[in-house]
Amino acid sequence: MAGGEEVVSRAVKFWKLEGAGNDFIGLDGRRGRRGLTREKLSAWCDRQRGAGADGVLVLEKPRGRGADFRMRYYNADGGEAEMCGNGARCFALLAKEVTGWRSKILRVETKAGPVTLEILGKEVRVSMPDPGLPRLGREITAEGRRVKLDFLNTGVPHAVEFVRSVEMVEVEKNGRAIRYHSAFAPAGTNVNFVAVGRGSQIDVRTYERGVEGETLACGTGVVASSILASVRRGVRPPVKIRTRGGDILRVNFVLENGRPRKVTLQGPARIVYEGTFHV
User: What CATH fold (topology level) applies to the domain 11-129+269-278?
Assistant: First the structure.
């Protein structure tokens, strides 16, 4: 440090949140993004050199009428995504903590469309935007495997492969091969491996785009998996999903002429701690 220069850092307060093991950094962005670059967001999500997280939630003022807040979501690589189901559930707690919001109902803008959040004790239920039509039976070759995939966009793109057991799946290897396959270029896709159990229960493991690895849970992924399990295997909603982290999420919906409507995702969410970044 030359000539007695003083290093000045700026403090940025953050909250660490998790929902079913899917963990997030929460930030108050009501005064603007204040230099939140892709590189900075990615560094904060680094589990060795930052706080560690699957993504970043930024709370902003709404842009239009009829909403209480706006949610911006960034993956662990710092890239912005349209939606995150578990992130949206955690966002309800972030908004309550940061703003003192008292109602149990929150109307939130996202890039994927408006969502409604409802705080139910230790759980949060999110009413998701209506997904598109499922695309079924796409066959590709990935890592030498001939794979049959179903596809559904639940705010972000998801491919689903049905398997006998999720325990034996090489999620990192097979997920990465499908995620980067030319069939899903240029944006790529999230990849879910789904085993149908008894009654209305399924097991799901997910390789998340942007995290570039397996996460303990993925909200939009279990929504896509549940709907496609209903279309493909006759699983009746509400569907109970056992995630890699061991938590149970619940997805409800109706199918109208093959199109999913009135989709909700419910499960646990909590604030783990709060802290300060020095930038």
Answer: Diaminopimelate Epimerase; Chain A, domain 1 (3.10.310)
**pLDDT at 258 (0 to 100):** 85
What's the CA gap between 81 and 84, in Å, rounded? Answer: 8
Q: Which residues of 232-271 are buried (b: 16+ CB within 10 A; e: fewer)?
A: beebebebbbbbbeebebbbbbeeeeeebeebbbbbbbee
Q: According to the model, what pLDDT value does residue 32 have?
A: 79
Rounded to two decimals, what is the model's pTM?
A: 0.91
Same fold, 11-129+269-278 and 135-267: yes
Helix axes 219-233, 85-99, angle to 10 degrees: 140
Q: What is d(CA 154, CA 219) in angstroms, rounded to the nearest whole number? A: 10
Q: Which two tokens stand for residue 29?
A: 């962005």
Structure confidence at residue 35 (pLDDT): 78
Catalytic residue positions, numbered: 84, 218
Rg (CA), the chain: 19
Phi, psi of 196 (to 5 degrees): -90, 125
d(CA 126, CA 220): 11
26 with 57: CB under 8 angstroms? yes
Class of the 135-267 domain? alpha beta
Helix, strand or coil for residue 86? helix
DSSP 183: G
Taking 60 as the threshold, does the pLDDT of residue 256 lie above it? yes
Averaged pLDDT for residues 80-87: 95
Least confident of 9-13, 200-204, 240-244: 9-13
pLDDT, one tens digit per residue, over 240-251 is 999 999 999 999
What are the domain boundaries of the chain?
Answer: 11-129+269-278, 135-267
Both tokens assigned to 86: 């578990």
